[in-house]
Amino acid sequence: xxxxxxxxxxxxxxxxxxxxxxxxxxxxxxxxxxxxxxxxxxxxxxxxxxxxxxxxxxxxxxxxxxxxxxxxxxxxxxxxx
Length: 81
Fold this sequence. Notes:
By secondary structure, the chain is mostly helical. It has a domain at 19-60. It has 2 helices and no strands. The chain has helices spanning 10-31, 35-60. Helix 1 packs antiparallel against helix 2 (35-60). The longest helix has 26 residues, at 35-60. 7% of the residues are buried. The mean pLDDT is 82.
């Protein structure tokens, strides 16, 4: 497990941070017995997941194993493709 970079991307950190904020908002409004605030926190949690996925789709997340990096492979100098 120490050899992978699971979660070490801008998309992952941003998504998790937004979800954590939503969790805290929902928790506070649960204690205050305010259902509207609780639901607002749930909306923030869902938005965090969407933001993380959109950032990953924009190229700010970790690429899938075996996925091509787009384009040609690097060739050693002196070899033509």
